[in-house]
Amino acid sequence: MNEGSSGTHNSAAYDSTVGIQAETVHNSNVYFVHPDASPQEKYKVGVRFLEDGVPSRARDMISDAIAHGHDNAEVRFHWVLAMLSARAYHDLSTEELQRLHHASGLVRTYAEGEWKDALRVAFELLAMLSIAEGETGRVLERLRALSLRQRDAILHHLDLVLTGGLKDSLWAENRERAEAARFGNDRVQRVWAYFEPDPIGPRALPPRPSSAAAAKASLPLRVGLFVIVAGFLSMLALFADPAAAVIELVVALGAGLTAAHFGRRWWHQDHRLKVKNRESHIPYTGNPAFAGDGFTNRVRHSFDHYFGTRVPHGWAPHEWLGHTVHIRDSLVAEIALLYRESRVSVDRVNWLIRYLAEDARDRHHKGTLFGHRHQSPTSAVAKTLCMVALIALGITTLALLGTVASGAGAAQTLLAVLAAVGAVWSGRTAVSSWLKTRGEEHRLAEETREYQEQLAARQAAYQNWKSFLDATRPTELEMETWLTCDKTVFVDEALRHHQLTWRDLITHTILMTPARPYKRGRVKGGPWRYSRYNFRLFLVTQDGVREVSTEFDFTDAKRGNEQRSNYRFDALSSVQVTERTSIGYDLELVLTNGPARNIRVKDADTHQLAPDENAQEIAEINLNAAGFIHTFRLLEGIAADGKGWIERNNPNHLPPLRPTD
User: Fold this and answer.
1) Are residues 505 and 522 in the same domain?
2) Quick one: which of 162, 116, 109 has its CA closest to 140?
3) pLDDT tens digits, residue range 59-87?
4) Rounded distance, CA 71 to CA 65, Å?
5) What pTM did the predictor assign?
6) How many CB atoms lie within 10 A of CB 565?
7) Interacting residues of 84 by C-beta distance below 8 A, sequence separation 6+
8) What residues make up the domain containing 376?
9) Are residues 496 and 638 located together in one domain of the fold?
């Protein structure tokens, strides 16, 4: 369970594996582009894609803006970065190289300013790959003269292009900035919120519809029958002894009205108490509608977790769980009924389950947790007064029969007895119908009030949680910045361990894959980001390939299970990719002197796509974000041609991309 910055607990049975713990897609308009968007708007979205680590989409958006006439030094600067971000020269097609050469010739046509300076420096850095290292000083001075944002963007996005002595001279300050920024903006306390799913809206059980239609329909007939029979009995008593009958009838009327008034209150409260007690003792496991339901079982586990952590003072968790078992059973059934629908994860309902656990704890502190189980003092008073009135009514009825018997014949007395029996029977049925009608009206009004209060309280809890998440959740730029800093520090430590400098490297690549168990999240249109990664770094030198891999916890940037291996170019025999829609992408790396290594590059995500998202496009975004495209092409080339591939793809042998003025 996610609980702020708290840890996550997992349990797995013997010989089982915990895989994905949670995954979520945040609905966001960060990458939304209206079909009628202007070139300027498309350019802005393209820059956002670039900054957030999605260069493939940035290339498309910025190229589209340029094609529709939005072209200046700033736009072209970001276009160059997008073309080269996360790519080496051998990743570029012939057409893309030609476009870069064409763009280098356009520099002179742009207006002077900071963006033209930045664009010129970018092309001069590319040109430095084919010139003597002694001539780099002037360009490095111009690079350092740029704004911090422009300089960092160049160094970040041209990372796989800039190597050798040029990168050596910039690496120390690049590493220092990464170490300073990797825990910035309260990273450790906020990363968890990125993987927290958007909460689903609050719901509550609506009041049950009234079931008193039949009783309400029969009430007039039963009341009419009672009036006729009671009136007949009254007439017999008045004829027999008018003075005594008047007194007895007044007492009977008063007793009847008193019994009706207090009896209604007593009956309603007693009825509600029985219903509440019955509902709170219905275990969800006994309901066939919930038996074997995976969603309900997950709800049950979530309730057990939050009730076990939201414990009143002085209670042990197991004691509180035992004390509230009936309440949890009832709440499990309620939540399962309200939210059981396709594609609804329990993670999206956990905010409500947590609120209900806290509410139960707070009601226990107030002494109202089981308040409905006990009869209220007003109910006891109403019951007593009702019983007294009914006794008085019974005595008065007997007195009426005595009055009739004392002043009339046997025939009238028999009729009076029959009338009394009829009055009792018809009165009882009329009272029963009346109580049910009035009771249902009262229940419906009370449940409607409770429903509105409950929904309002849950709405407030939902808004509080959602506002807290929105304020805590890192932006895409923050997530990408932290990840870039982590990669920089990792590469630096690998270079130090192998005692290598950038001059010793021909090229390098880093592959980022999910490490199980993990949580993952993304914004709509963006790449998956993981709570745990496998970083796999390949350092290519003249002597061969050095590979360093480690597991990485993105929350606190801690690493573990580090492994290192070295192999010659001819030891890498083959590289294969397996794509399975329902599973994901696998990379198979085969060495001549060892078993094949299968690397899960990404898990399947088709079920997580929005209706307006393109599966192929999202897959490409995720593969690019993982560094897969560059890594695969590099390893595939080495496996096919060995050291000859390095000679043919040496960037020093490429024509320079020098801007012309």
Assistant:
1) yes
2) 162
3) 999 999 999 999 999 999 999 999 999 88
4) 8
5) 0.78
6) 13
7) 92, 157, 158, 160, 161
8) 213-469
9) yes
